[in-house]
Amino acid sequence: MPTPFTHLRIAQCLLADDSLSSAYRALLRRRLPTFQLGGIVADARVANGMSREETHFYAYGAPISERPWRRMLRQHAELGDPRDEAHLAFIAGYVAHLAADEAWALKMVRPQFWGRAWPDVTRADKFFALHLILTIMDERDERALESWQAGSLARCEPDGWLPFLPDAVLRGWRDMVAQQIAPGGGSRTLEIFSARLRREPAEIRAALDDKESLEYYLWRHVPEPLLAEVERQVYAFTRDQLAVYLSEFMPALSTVV
After folding, report:
1. pTM for this one?
2. Contact yes or no for 182/62 (Cβ under 8 A)
3. Domain boundaries, the chain
């Protein structure tokens, strides 16, 4: 699924999207660090040994019959009653993450990678191609992150916002991502993907940097215009689900002291 850098880029776009209510955007800007952390911390499961179903609320290969963020609120009812603005903005970021991953799964991964045959291509090479496309997005989105992102994220201090991920894990994930995007930091995406793919980082880098290799592994199966259209749909879905969430739960803050 999309990397933290892509999720931070989506959050950055949402903050500037005048299709969202100005009241919603004002809330997210007031609580910017918590919105940022909420938008990336679902992937901290890898540091805590949790399954995707425990933090993303759907499983690989299983039908998604309910919006994952609604399933999260159903399974953890306390999240439907945010304590304050910071808690609400954090959950809003988490909702945006789940919505983006849901749309990416339904629009790209399932139909284009696992639901369609690629003639004479092994499953391992499909998995490799998926990580190539994720890295292309990751590197583009890291370059597009505005300078405030690292310092703002680093200032976020979790306060028992999730019943299924402890604050220590949230802080660890915060620091790992903030350090990578800070001035002088370095991305660990190839290192992480290398371990997952059981290929050397140099092999992934070589494929990314060679036009013919990218065509062979990826673009002949998933053309660049298709990626652009899926990303457009993912963003629109994420924005719309975020608006639905805030329309239902932001008014509840009027009762919070």
Report:
1. 0.95
2. no
3. 4-255
